[in-house]
Amino acid sequence: MIRIADGWKEYSILATGDGYKLERWGGHILLRPDPQVIWPARRDLFAFPGLAAVYRRSERGGGAWEYKQPLPQSWNIGYKNLTFRVMPMGFKHTGLFPEQAVNWERMGALVQAARAQGRGVRVLNLFAYTGGASVALAKAGAEVTHVDAAKGMVERAGENARLSGIQSGIRYIVDDCKKFVLRELRRGNRYDAVVMDPPSYGRGPGGELWKIETELYPFVQLCAGLMSDRPLFFLINSYTTGLQPAVLSNILTLCLSQKKGRVEAYEVGLPTEEGIPLPCGAGGMYLYE
Fold first, then answer.
1. Residue of 82, 140, 134, 139 whose CA lies nearest to 116
2. Are 15 and 280 in contact (CB under 8 A)?
3. Which pLDDT does position 229 carry in this prediction?
4. Which residues are paired to 31 by β-bridges?
5. Closest by Cα among 172, 267, 177 to 223
6. How much is the mean pLDDT over the chain?
């Protein structure tokens, strides 16, 4: 099953092909590589009218942006009642993953339903990047702890929160996620929900090595100990090629089923103006009863 983030007004995928996707980000058009796009383009994407920048990969690894037109260093786009700052960054990123709107909607609805029953909701967002999920959860009324090892990304998260009118409700932590979780366990702190978007490979601020194939299962096991007496949900996002939704479902079931609940596992994707959905990653959510 693929869940499509079709609620965007200021973002769209105009065309795809030859390993690229042509995107409109507000008033600016970018062309970026996408490993899922293995079909030929129907038109010359590099000659699209108004194309502002192309990210070109290097044979030596990495890549760089090639600018076709003047482009602001950064600009804002909106999603419903949220506002985010986007900008061309290293390794083709813009600081925002639009497909995650499907998870923002789902989590926001769960938080609002819990609050309507008089419950407060404490959420831990790990590998939290520029804070799309943190902002959406805080806007829904959750108390969010936002953790990421990159100081610059945490600062961007704070900026996104302010742009969305959020002045409080998010605690920002620059730290290695595993070290932070271990400290929270020792302190006896508990959360009603956990969200994580782990990288395929990375290093923490102290050189801590992370490989998702070997680290994800024990890390989810560790985080299971942070759940409160009345937990709400546990969400894993993954962009790692080959890590199927069923794998996330199995990990969640094995690590969390000591407390009754059910798993939803799915692909996330975006609509295109070509009429085909573009798959963008996988999600797995454990919903506690």
1. 140
2. no
3. 96
4. 22, 54
5. 177
6. 95
Q: What is the pLDDT of residue 112?
A: 98
**Average confidence (pLDDT) over 173-191:** 97
Q: What is the tally of structural domains in the chain?
A: 2
**pTM for this predicted structure:** 0.95
Instruction: Name every residue whose Cβ is closer than 8 Å to that of residue 188 and which is 6 or more positions away in sequence.
Output: none
pLDDT at 91: 86
What CATH code is carried by the domain that includes residue 155?
Answer: 3.40.50.150
For residue 256, give every residue at least 6 positions away whose Cβ sits within 8 Å of its Cβ, in sequence order, or none.
220, 224, 227, 234, 286
Mean predicted confidence (pLDDT) in 9-16: 98
Q: Which amino acid is at 191?
A: Y
Contact between 138 and 108 (Cβ < 8 Å): no
Structure tokens given for 218: 């024990």
On whether both 102 and 87 belong to a single domain, the answer is no
| Angstrom distance (rounded) from CA 268 to CA 284 | 10
Residue ranges making up the domain that contains 207 = 98-288
262 contacts: CB under 8 Å, gap ≥ 6: 286, 287, 289
| Alpha-carbon torsion angle 210, 159, 8, 284, nearest 10 | 30
Cα distance between residue 208 and residue 76, in whole Å: 34
Nearest-CA neighbor of 160 among 83, 73, 81, 77?
83
Q: What is the DSSP letter of 199?
A: -
Q: Which residues are 172's β-sheet partners?
A: 146
Pair (76, 108) in one structural domain: no
> Number of C-alpha atoms within 13 angstroms, CB side, residue 209?
3
User: Which tokens is 267 given?
Assistant: 């692909």
pLDDT tens digits along 191-211: 999 999 999 887 766 777 778
Query: Which helix (H) or strand (E) covers residue 264, if one does?
Result: strand 261-271
Helix (H) / strand (E) containing 160: helix 151-163
Domain boundary among 68, 92, 116: 92
